[in-house]
Each structure stands twice: as structure tokens, then as C-alpha cells.
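TASK: fixed-backbone design
INPUT:
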């Protein structure tokens, strides 16, 4: 009996001694926290999501937007010269406060005798410039040029308190004008001109006065057609010979 009791008492102790070993075994085999999962996160989720996907998104979107903007600029600037003359911050008083916006004045031209101006208002500057450009393209006028570089004759224009004087100039003179008037003649395609502005310096009034002077410009060809004569007859009255008058008439460009 004593032997059986000893055996039965030793068996539980053996089982109890072996139990911690079995319980500790999975703990030694389990991966250390942060050991295998960190490399997997770097190489898998972190690498793919942050590196590849982020790079492709930024690269793809950047290239696509850049291409679209370049194409849009080429279409808008194809043969049309656009110049921003003035931009002003404006406000509108409404119930509860003020709403601020921007007003833009733009001059456009083809560089060969056509020019126009327009203004637009919007809450943002790019939208205001877009509106002004569209308005300017709708109101372009044709101005006859002498030899494609200067005006045929002198002229005066006024609008409100603004008064301007424009004069034709020989080759090599350049554009003697400042501020808004220079933008008009550069867009028009005039290379030699002398101007003078008297009165207001408001760009809106100066632009309108300049266009008033340009609208009065006439060419010898149009005058000859209106009077039913030849251009050589009009040019020959200044003491020039008939051959010189015909040569000048042939070289005259409207």
C-alpha cells in the first residue's frame, strides 16, 4: 500500500513538472513582438501603399495636369497676344458684410493690325482674367498699318478726362509710350510710334481714349476707294513723281 501511495504521489508531481514545460514551449516558439511583423509592414503595406502607390499617384497626376495646362495655353496663345494691363481689388457691400473680388483689364491682339480690350470681375484672379480675355476677343477692331510697323497718320482721342495723341514715326523709333498705351501698341503689332497722354492716369480711360484715336485711322487705299481714285493719285500730290507714287502705292499695306 505504501508503494502504491508513493507511486501515485510521484505521478502528479511528474505531470505538474511537465506541464510548465509544455506551457512554456509555445511561448518560446511564438514570434517576438515586432520581430516579423515590422519587416512585413515595411515591405508590404508601408512599401506598397506609401511608396509605389503614392509615387504613381503623384507622378501620374502631375504629368497629366501639366500636359493639359500646356495644351490649353497653346490653344489660347495661338496667334493671340494677351497682356494684363491692370488688376484691382473691389468689394461689394451686402447684408452681413462685404464680398471682396478682383477686376482685371486685359488687352489682346494678333500682332498684325487687330486689337481689343475687355474687363471682367470675379471672386478669384484667374477667373477675372479669363472673363476679361473673352470679352476682349469679342470686341477686336481692325487698324490699318503703314508698312506693317506704324500708323498712317497722327490722331487724337479722348474719353472722359483722358486725352491721348498718337503720331506715326520712322523706322527705328520704337514704341514711345508708357503704361496701358504700350500694351495696346505691342498687341496691335506697331513697332514705331510716338504717343502722349494728358489728363487722367486711370488705365480704363487711357485705354478707351487710345482706342478712340485708333478707330479714326484710315489708309490711303480706303480713302482712294471712297473718292473713286487711285492710290497713286493721292500719293503724287506731295511733289513726288508718278513713278514714285506708284511704287509707294504698290508697297502700301493696309
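OUTPUT:
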Amino acid at each position: 500500500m505504501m508503494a502504491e501511495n508513493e507511486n501515485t504521489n510521484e505521478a502528479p508531481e511528474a505531470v505538474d513538472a511537465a506541464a510548465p514545460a509544455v506551457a512554456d514551449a509555445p511561448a518560446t516558439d511564438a514570434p517576438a513582438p515586432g520581430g516579423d511583423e515590422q519587416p512585413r509592414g515595411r515591405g508590404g503595406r508601408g512599401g506598397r501603399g506609401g511608396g509605389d502607390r503614392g509615387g504613381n499617384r503623384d507622378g501620374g497626376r502631375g504629368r497629366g495636369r501639366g500636359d493639359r495646362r500646356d495644351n490649353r495655353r497653346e490653344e489660347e496663345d495661338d496667334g493671340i497676344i494677351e497682356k494684363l494691363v491692370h488688376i484691382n481689388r473691389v468689394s461689394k457691400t451686402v447684408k452681413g458684410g462685404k464680398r471682396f473680388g478682383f477686376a482685371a483689364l486685359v488687352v489682346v491682339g494678333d500682332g498684325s493690325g487687330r486689337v481689343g480690350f475687355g474687363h471682367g470681375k470675379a471672386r478669384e484672379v484667374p477667373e477675372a482674367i479669363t472673363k476679361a480675355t473673352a470679352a476682349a476677343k469679342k470686341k477686336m477692331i481692325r487698324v490699318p498699318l503703314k508698312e506693317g510697323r506704324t500708323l498712317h497718320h497722327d490722331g487724337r482721342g479722348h474719353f472722359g478726362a483722358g486725352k491721348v495723341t498718337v503720331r506715326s514715326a520712322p523706322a527705328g523709333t520704337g514704341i514711345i509710350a508708357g503704361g496701358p498705351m504700350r500694351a495696346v501698341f505691342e498687341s496691335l503689332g506697331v513697332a514705331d510710334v510716338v504717343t502722349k497722354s494728358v489728363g487722367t492716369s486711370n488705365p480704363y480711360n487711357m485705354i478707351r481714349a487710345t482706342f478712340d484715336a485708333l478707330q479714326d485711322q484710315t489708309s490711303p487705299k480706303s480713302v482712294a476707294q471712297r473718292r473713286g481714285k487711285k492710290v497713286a493719285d493721292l500719293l503724287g500730290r506731295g511733289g513726288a513723281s508718278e513713278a514714285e507714287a506708284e511704287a509707294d502705292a504698290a508697297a502700301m499695306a493696309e
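COMMENT: The longest strand covers residues 81-94.
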